[in-house]
């Protein structure tokens, strides 16, 4: 009774509608509670919970004693982290916890650790400007300065420990691109790569390691370069890299035939990006190239997309004043700066980065 040609009946339709509604409600609930999850994660990272548990298991009471935290409150936090699938509580021994595979990524001793990245992006310094997102949307202006009285990078310059944390987070965020990029672009046709704003040199080190005939120049502020000597010494590349201190809004160093910008362009508005690119255009040889490593937005958001680059775009709005861009946006930037965009090459999934190559001339 009530069955249709496709074999379904009204009861099936009603059940499907209820399921769809509850899935939609679940999506909204997760978003509503998302900031709470972020705070729980950030607190756990700052307390060092994942490092304390390590590869074994700990009781909530032992952990509270080690951290000098309140026992019951500690248990409640651990259970919240278990609900977020970062920890697992023993079913046979209540109050005993170990890390999950995702939780392992928040340990300092894990290969490919995301601890520094998680710590930085859940730090109050990174989050407080988000409290004024509504203002940013209304005005189109960055809100970080409203909160802190200076711009984001100026604030880092005033706080060396925070700057080191930021550099570590950027290094962790660059690892996936550093693993893939050297094998998906013809770096071997160049002689010297200039990494502009390359921080501790994570990407440049990977490129030089994969291409032994290349030399490198790492160009950044003193704060940005602070951890670079240690990295290049550890990777055995000290004699192939020159560290140069400078400001890419003032000039670009000569001597390279490939100029590399990784996660730089999205930090700035079009005018400031054009300034950076024009300085490179002034020194790049005619047979040289510019290589930007950035996410590239599609013209419209694909149906069913879970691409976090759109959240990154809002982070650029509130914290630094930049934005994520489409291929058309990159083409316009290059043209305005004396370059011609040649190719946009995606790195293998799950990497969100693209290799955007441009050459001198329009």
UniProtKB/TrEMBL annotation:
GO molecular function: O-methyltransferase activity; protein dimerization activity
Position of the signal peptide: none
Domain O-methyltransferase C-terminal residue range list: 130-339
Alphabetical list of PROSITE patterns matching this protein: SAM_OMT_II (PS51683)
Gene Ontology biological process terms from the UniProt entry: methylation
PANTHER family linked to this entry: O-METHYLTRANSFERASE CICE, PUTATIVE (AFU_ORTHOLOGUE AFUA_4G14580)-RELATED
Protein name: Methyltransferase
